[in-house]
Amino acid sequence: MKAAFIEQAGPPEVIQYGELPIPKVEENQALVRTAAVSINPIDTYIRGGAKYWELPSPFVLGCDIAGEVVEVGSNVSGLAVGQRVWGSNQGLLGRQGTFAEYCAIDEQWLYPIPDGVDSESMAAAALVGITAHLGLFREARLRAGETIFVRGGAGGVGSMVLQMASAIGATVIATAGGAEKAAVCRRLGAKHVVDYTQGNICEQVSDFAPSGVQVFWETLREPDFDMAVSLLSEKGRIILMAGRDARPPFPVGPFYVKGCSMHGFVMFKATAEEQRACAADINHWFTNGQLQAVIDRTLPLSEAAEAHRLQEAHTIGNTSTLTGKLVLRP
After folding, report:
1. CATH code 2.40.50.100 for 2-113+294-329
2. Which residue from 43, 41, 27 is spatially nearest to 318, judged by alpha carbons?
3. Beta strand pairing status for 295-300 and 213-218?
4. Residues 179-210: pLDDT tens digits?
5. How far apart are CA 12 and CA 45, in angstroms?
6. At residue 25, what are phi and psi to the nearest 5 degrees?
7. How far is C-alpha 76 from the chain's CA centre?
8. What are the DSSP calls for 201-236, one per residue?
9. Of 221, 217, 238, 240, whose CA–CA distance to 229 is shortest?
10. Low-confidence ranges of the chain (pLDDT < 50)
11. pTM exceeds 0.90
12. How is the chain split into domains, by residue range?
């Protein structure tokens, strides 16, 4: 089978596209014929040499997948050959990734694709959708009628946060860079959009939410805690999901006087049961039209190195050139 893999860490040029054996299915796994995958920032960190855990060699890149089950292991009971499925959490914690024509994946990490939803959308929404759900409902406990501020509403995670918050009846304020991305945020359900290239963000958000926001969702790798705390209401919550190396100043006094809380998390440490609950809601919202994937572009899997270059420039280089996810097809 064709696959995009690495044998050593390094820049995008270390990614090889070539032949690997089709993986053998273990008793709790299904063999999935890949229809689409998507790229996430963590893929680029791992490829670049981040030593979060030991990697197999060769190591297939990628977390997200959508495809069709072609074989099931002896202990698999909830999946059938011919079923369309999606999933995430691959390529992490030492598991092989998804950038291949076939992937052997534990049943616990696979979910049915709703009728009428295409594979590209499910692959694009996988990791970012589960991340958004965990942060909004397990961590922030967002409720209808509350106001949430999302930095980067047109991004991969940001676009999911925006839509899920809107789906439960929360008011969303989002930032976007430029008129085009602002229009995307409004289309996805943001009530107010702040163009961060024009004017003062804090002043504009305060105009929309004079009493403060209940949830401040930070998507950037360098958090601005002075901004976050100043915009929070009493008992407001900050959500962090990026910035391992960040060490920004923190306004301790205003934070504790307001009775605020801060919640940091990574989706791949959530249990299979927690992630399955997220997937159920994601499927429901896709089915009733309250959730859609934001895809910047689709590339062939053979261009995995180029996809990594684009993602890295956007995330680490702060070029802000992507709107949504990069999807690849075998």
Report:
1. no
2. 41
3. unpaired
4. 999 999 999 999 999 999 888 999 999 999 99
5. 11
6. -85, 125
7. 27
8. HHHHHHHH-TT-EEEEEE-SSS--HHHHHHHEEEEE
9. 238
10. none
11. yes
12. 2-113+294-329, 129-267
Phi, psi of 174 (to 5 degrees): -130, 155
Report the pLDDT value the prediction gives residue 14, as an integer from 0 to 100: 98
Integer Rg of the chain from CA: 20
Rounded-to-10 torsion of CA 213, 277, 40, 291 = -60
Supply 330's token pair.
């075998």
Instruction: Tell me the CA distances in angstroms from 144 to 153, 203, 236, one per residue in order.
Output: 19, 25, 15
What is the spatial distance between Cα 242 and Cα 41, in angstroms, rounded to a whole number? 10
Q: On the CB side of 22, how many CA atoms lie within 13 Å of its CA?
A: 11
Number of C-alpha atoms within 13 angstroms, CB side, residue 30? Answer: 27
Backbone angles phi, psi at 183, to 5 degrees: -65, -35
In this prediction, residue 227 carries a pLDDT of 96
Give the dihedral of Cα atoms 232, 235, 241, 244; nearest 10 deg.
Answer: 90
51 burial level (CB within 10 Å; 0-12, 13-18, 19+): exposed
> Cα separation of 106 and 26, whole Å?
8
Measure the CA–CA gap between 136 and 149, rounded to whole angstroms: 12
Q: What is the pLDDT of residues 239-263, one digit of tens each?
A: 999 888 889 999 999 999 999 999 9
Enter the CATH code of domain 129-267: 3.40.50.720
Q: Is the peptide bond before 58 cis (omega within 30 degrees of 0)?
A: yes
Specify which residues 65 forms β-bridges with: 87
What single-letter amino acid sits at 242? A
What does the pLDDT read at residue 103?
98
